Amino acid sequence: MKFILSFVVLLSLIWTSSCITGYNVVQGDYDEFKNIQRYVLKQQFRPKEAVAPVSMITHSLVKEISSNTKSSYFLYATLNANANSFALEKEFYISIDGDKKLKKIEDLIIENRNSISENSKQILTADSTKMNVITGYSNAEWRENKFKLELSDTDIAAIMNGEELKFRYYFGSEPATIRIRGKKLRKMKDLIARN
Questions:
Q1: pTM
Q2: Tens-of-pLDDT digits for all 195 residues of the chain?
Q3: Torsion of Cα atoms, 101 then 105 then 111 then 112, to 10°
Q4: 166 and 179 Cβ atoms separated by less than 8 Å
Q5: Phi then psi for 56, rounded to 5 degrees?
Q6: Which domains, ranges and CATH numbers included, belong to the chain?
Q7: CA 56 to CA 178: how far, in whole Å?
Q8: How far apart are CA 152 and CA 101, in angstroms?
Q9: DSSP states of 171-192 as a string?
């Protein structure tokens, strides 16, 4: 009984965290200024390589339906690369069930990012009260690579019929590959099927 209760609590936490963060949830809204219906699916991935130049890859798949019911699809990608990695190459591959297509990045935006955090430690004073003491600072640096790609009708049809989708990016000679299947691929298909 405890196992079932623990399992239900775990599932609830996973579902709640995806709703709170907005990842792997299709969200829709109407843009009255552009007169389009927009659906967005934001997903995060870690590369499958054991040692990769990227720590996190975020994809936002966007479907825009105009007033004449024409659908357009865009992929917005953010790749957080190590600060000392080579630059993201302006070509990458999409593989749908093993069928590989070379894609070109037209407008690549690269921003250097950093985050400074405080390291602290809790100590016990002579009168048995606890006190936080700053022990130092940590600095994290990374390079954020962003681009937008319009997906063709052929790409969308292949995704709808596919069972596995891979993206392969290169930083110099170092690859970073993400694989999408199962629930995450079903979510992409759900977005594509929306009207």
A1: 0.79
A2: 554 545 545 545 555 444 445 788 999 999 999 999 999 999 999 999 998 999 999 999 999 999 888 999 999 999 999 999 999 999 999 999 999 999 999 999 999 988 898 888 988 888 888 888 888 888 889 999 999 999 999 999 999 999 999 999 999 999 999 999 999 999 999 999 988
A3: 50
A4: yes
A5: -150, 140
A6: 25-193 (2.60.40)
A7: 10
A8: 12
A9: ETTEEEEEEE-HHHHHHHHHHH
